[in-house]
From TrEMBL:
The gene is COBLL1. Residues 1-35 are annotated as: Disordered. GO terms for molecular function: actin monomer binding. It comes from the Eukaryota. InterPro entries: COBL-like. This is Cordon-bleu WH2 repeat protein like 1.
Length: 138
């Protein structure tokens, strides 16, 4: 050592430790124990019903282009996009050219996500519709 005092630019660069995140606010809700237990039981019952539907086969009416109606059976665990591919393969159609619409027993349209199992939806009729392809501009 040559007796110099260390200057700040000579000291190794140190990072400040990150501050910890604040604790979440404490919940001060007071709920009736019996009503909470009832809601948990009813939720469990609904989930059990849905799981039972997924494990069963689902009977569907399929409306093909040209209003041809066919009937098919699929397993309730089949995701919706797999259903599209399955139906298109079964009826010799190109899956990239078609979409599916779902109708309930009351003829209401059913919204779904591509990975939703068919057994979780109350589907009675599947409509295979040709996609409306826009002409691409050069």
């Amino acid at each position: 050592m040559d007796g110099r005092t260390p200057r700040p630019q000579d000291a190794p660069a140190r990072r400040k430790p990150k501050a910890k995140a604040p604790l979440p606010p404490a919940e001060t809700k007071y709920t009736d124990v019996s009503s909470a237990a009832d809601s948990v039981e009813s939720t469990a019952f609904i989930m059990e019903q849905k799981e039972n539907m997924i494990d069963k086969d689902v009977e569907l009416s399929v409306v093909l282009p040209g209003d041809i109606i066919k009937s098919t059976t699929v397993h309730g665990s089949k995701p919706m996009m797999d259903l599209l591919i399955f139906l298109c393969a079964q009826y010799h159609l190109n899956p990239s050219s078609y979409t599916i619409d779902l109708l309930s027993a009351e003829q209401n349209h059913i919204k779904f996500k591509p990975n939703t199992p068919i057994g979780m939806l109350e589907v009675e009729k599947v409509i295979l519709k040709p996609k409306m392809l826009d002409k691409k501009k050069p």
